[in-house]
């Protein structure tokens, strides 16, 4: 027994010696690897082609240095209309990487994030930063590339836990869209409150500016679609007032479920003609439709179960027609926020298309002339 215990003790000592020796062998290797990932601040300033100041969610400041160890230089021989550079401007090619230099430190740390950046022409302004709007929201770095004649494709990055991290775009259902998103070349991205980021670009398919809003999730490294909106080309500035598509469509759904006129909750389906006249101002005009009379107002009309010559105190409201031309609303946008409709068909009798949502005994219907064309009329009945 004593002999057995001595053997076990001896074996344990040997194993500990081997383990300790292994640590001593590995430690210098790990230390060397850490040193290889560090670059002195002065050297970074010397070799970097671009640099940006970026703060994380805790207001810690970093400098992002962008450089390529295999860089080759040339000069433009003709004008570059994408970057707005002129002949003779310096152009560089290489596999560009990033290093982070934390404020107050003397060494930058190499980053593994793929910038998808292969060329840089100076001077440049198409790679840029957007400042966080409030505490807890980090600054964002955008590396962009050519998209179309109307916009660039912007790839966003933030600093999280001392590391430069790319963000991915996802839709309102959590499905990935892409690593890039369209953004106009001038003033194409802005930061809003509550960690929201808004992108604007001109959409050739509808001849309007698309303004889409994403919510930043730092822990998941995601930008999730939270709202959409189109603005007319004669108003290219950012929309600073009004309701986006998501809230507008939710309000329409609520109005349809309750059977009320949007923004006029005291006017309800089934209300008598007398009660309505006591509540609403005089209509701009009155006319007969196929099924009854309509009182027409600037933004909507109210339909009754009787024709004009038959209207009396007991006539009742049967339908609300909302004039939707100014909403810049499209069938795809409605489906995005309200889901798949119960019906969608070509209404040959009326001319154009109908898209119908049922909410119990109530109906919300959207009407448009051509497939996927702008919605001109919305009805609640």
Explain what you see.
- With 381 residues, the chain is an alpha+beta fold.
- It contains 5 helices and 30 strands.
- It has helices at 2-36, 41-47, 245-258, 273-279, 331-338; strands at residues 38-40, 50-55, 61-67, 72-75, 90-93, 97-102, 107-110, 119-121, 128-130, 140-146, 152-160, 163-166, 168-170, 176-178, 181-183, 189-192, 196-203, 208-217, 222-227, 230-231, 260-261, 264-268, 285-288, 293-296, 300-304, 317-323, 343-346, 353-359, 362-368, 377-380.
- The protein has an 8-stranded antiparallel sheet. Strands 13, 14, 16, 17, 18, 19 and 20 form a 7-stranded mixed sheet that branches. A 5-stranded antiparallel sheet has the order 1-7-6-3-2.
- A hairpin with a 2-residue loop joins strand 11 (152-160) and strand 12.
- The longest helix is centred in the N-terminal third of the chain and has 35 residues, at 2-36.
- The protein is elongated, with a radius of gyration of 31 Å.
- The model is unreliable at 1-34 (pLDDT under 50).
């Amino acid at each position: 027994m004593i002999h057995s215990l001595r053997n076990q003790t001896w074996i344990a000592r040997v194993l500990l010696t081997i383990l300790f020796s292994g640590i001593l062998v590995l430690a210098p290797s790990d230390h060397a690897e850490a040193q290889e990932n560090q670059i002195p601040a002065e050297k970074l300033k010397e070799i970097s082609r671009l640099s940006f100041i970026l703060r994380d969610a805790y207001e810690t400041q970093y400098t992002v240095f962008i450089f390529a160890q295999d860089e080759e230089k040339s000069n433009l021989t003709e004008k570059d209309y994408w970057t707005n550079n002129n002949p003779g401007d310096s152009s560089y090619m290489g596999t560009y990487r990033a290093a982070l230099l934390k404020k107050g430190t003397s060494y930058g740390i190499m980053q593994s994030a793929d910038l998808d950046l292969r060329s840089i022409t100076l001077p440049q302004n198409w790679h840029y930063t957007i400042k966080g709007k409030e505490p807890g929201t980090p600054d964002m770095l955008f590396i962009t590339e050519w998209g179309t004649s109307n916009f660039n494709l912007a790839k966003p990055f933030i600093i999280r836990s001392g590391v430069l991290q790319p963000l991915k775009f996802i839709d309102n259902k959590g499905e990935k869209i892409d690593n890039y998103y369209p953004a106009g070349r001038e003033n194409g991205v802005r930061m809003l409150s509550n960690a929201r980021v808004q992108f604007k670009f001109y959409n050739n398919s509808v001849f309007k500016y698309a303004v889409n809003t994403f919510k930043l999730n730092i822990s998941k490294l995601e930008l999730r679609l939270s709202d959409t909106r189109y603005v007319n080309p004669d108003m290219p500035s950012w929309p600073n007032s009004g309701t986006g598509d998501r809230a507008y469509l939710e309000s329409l759904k609520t109005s349809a479920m309750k059977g009320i006129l949007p923004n006029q909750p005291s006017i309800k389906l089934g209300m008598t003609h007398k009660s309505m006249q006591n509540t609403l101002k005089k209509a701009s005009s009155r006319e007969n439709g196929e099924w009854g009379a309509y009182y027409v107002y600037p933004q909507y009309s109210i339909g009754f179960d009787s024709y004009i010559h038959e209207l009396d105190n007991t006539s009742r409201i049967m339908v609300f027609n909302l004039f939707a031309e100014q909403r810049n609303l499209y069938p795809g946008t409605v489906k995005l926020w309200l889901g798949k409709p119960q019906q969608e068909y070509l209404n040959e009798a009326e001319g154009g298309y109908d898209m119908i949502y049922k909410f119990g005994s109530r109906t919300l219907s959207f009407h448009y002339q051509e497939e996927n064309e702008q919605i001109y009329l919305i009805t609640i009945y």
